[in-house]
Amino acid sequence: MSAQRIRQAVQYLSFVILMYGGRVGIHLGSALPCFACPFVPGCGGFCYLMGLQGYIGFGLVAGAAAGKEVLVALGWFLVFVVSVALLGKVWCGWICPFGLIQDWLSWLRKKLGVRERYLSLGGKKAIGSIKHIFLILIVTLPPLITAKILPPDLYLPFCNICPGKLLLPLFAGETKYLALNLDNAVTLWVSVALIAVTASTLVAAFFKDRFFCLFCPLLALIHFLRPLTALRLVKEPTFCVGCGNCRRHCQMDVRVLDQNISQAQTMECVDCLRCLEACPSSGALSLKFLGFQLFSSSRWATSAWRRKP
Amino acid sequence: MSKLIGALIFVVTWELVAPAWGDPARDFIWWKMVSQSQSPEGGHLISYRLESPGATAIEDLEVIFRVSPYQRAGAARSFGQGQYFQKIVHPGQRDFVFHGGQSAKIDIWARARRGERWLFAQTLVATFGQSGLGDSESSALVDFDWAPDWPQWRLAGAEMFYRAQAGQPLSLELSVQPRLVQVLEDQVTMANWPGRELGLYQYVSSQNHQLAQSGYTAQKKDVIFLASLGQLGEATFALPVYRAYYGQLDYKKGLTVMAAFFVGTIGLVSFHGRRFESQ
Q1: Which pLDDT value is given to residue A110?
Q2: A297 touches A282 (CB < 8 A)
Q3: Which of A154, A263, B63, B151 has fewest C-beta within 10 Å?
C-alpha cells in the first residue's frame, strides 16, 4: 500500500476522531499541534493555539491565581512539545482537519481542470511572514484583553479570525459563525473579519495547494521544535538524480528538494510524502523515526503520483 | 481591476455593516477593590466599587451575592437564614461593603441596566482576611443589609449565560450544592427583556451536583428566567439560576459578506494572480 493511501486513511480517521470524538467520550487534550477546533460541538480535542492564548492572557495575568495557572500552562506546553517531538510535521500533513479540507479543495480543482497557481519566491515570503505576525499577536493581545486595555470581545484573538472556527463547526452542524454578530461594534467587526479571512482562504486554497499552511502559526511552532522531532524526512543527496519530480509533486512547492542538500524538511514542508512517492531513485528520500526507516523512495514503485503532478 | 474589486468589497461590506453599527464604547462593568480592613465587630470588611468606562447613569443595578460553601467546613452547619440573597439597590449606588469572617469567600455578580442594554460585571470572588489582617473568629459568614421588599430568602447565583439561536431548544442544567439545598420543584418563568444583552462569560461549576435539567424552545429575543424552589430546614429558597439571551446574529448579511469576499478573491486571483506567480 502506498504512503499516500495510508496518509489518506489516517487523515480521514483523524478527521472523524477530532471532529466527533467528544460525542463518544474521546478527548485528546488541549495541546494538539493541529487545527482541532474547540468551537466544534463534540470535538475530540483542542488546538494548542486556543490554550496558548488562554494561558498567556488569563493564566499568567491572573494575579493571585497565577501560581497554579503557570503550572497548568507549563504542563500543556510540555504535552505539546512531546506531541511534536513524536510526530513532527505529520500533524500537519496527516492529521490536521483543516489540512484535509484544503486537500479536498485541491482535488476539486484538479477535477475541474483548473490550473494550479504557483507563488513566486517573493510572494511566498510575503505570505509566509503572516505567520510570524500571527504568533506575535497570539502572545501580545491576550494580556491586553485581560488587563481591559482591549475589549473582552476580542478574547482568543487568533481564534476570532481562524478559518477553522467557521468551517470546522459546519461539519458538526454549527452554523452560527456564518452570521454577522450584531451585539456591538467589536463583535460585528470580528465576525466580518472571520468571514472575510475564511472566504479568501478558501478561494486561495482552491487555486493553491495548502494555501493556509504557508502562513499557519502552528506549522511555525512545530518547525521551531524541529530539532526535537523523532520523525524526519531525510534526503540522501548521493542517490538524487536531479530529475525534479519531488519539487513538481510537492504540495508546498519546497524548492530545495531537488537541490544537492540533505535538508528536505523546510519550514513549509508538511510531510505529505508526495516527493517520496514521486522520487524514482531508491533511497533518495525516506521518512525515518529515530533513524528507523518507515517509508522510502523506490525506483520500482508504480504510484500514480509519479505519472503527473 | 483589483482596485475596483477592492472597492466593491469595501462598499458591499460597509453597506451591510454600517446600519448595524453598535455603540463603540466598551459596555461592561467590573469590580474594583477599594479597601480591606478589620471590622470593629469582628471579622473583616472589604469595600468594592463598581466601575464602568465613561459611564453615565446606570439606571438599575442588581447585585447578587453568594457565600461560597467550599471554604469552611462549618459553612453547611452555620448556613442559615439570611446568608444568601439577592439585592437590588437604588440607581447610582456603586460602592458596597462586605463583612465576613476569616477565609470566607463570597461570589458577587452584578448586572446593570443602561437604557435598553444590560451590562454584566465579571463574577467576583472575594476572600476575607487574605491580606493578613489577623484571624478574628466570627460565626457569621457574611452579614448584609437586605431590602425588605424581598420577603423570600433567595439562593442567588447565575451560573451560566448561554448564547443560543432563536428556535433552538435549550438544555439547561441547574447546579446547586446538594448539601445545602434540597430542590422541591422547578418552575420556569419567561420574561421579555428589551434590547440586546452583553456578557460572554460562561461558568459551569464541575463540583456541584446536577439536580435538574430542562429544555425549552425559545423565541427570538426571549430571555428565560429559571426559578426553582429549595429548602433548607424551615427556610424556603427561590433560586434564579439561569438566564438565556439571544445574540443578534444576521445570517443573510454574513453570507453576503462571504459571497463578496469569494467573488473578490476569485477576481483578484484571476486578473492579478500572475503578478505573484513564479515564471
Answers
A1: 92
A2: yes
A3: B151
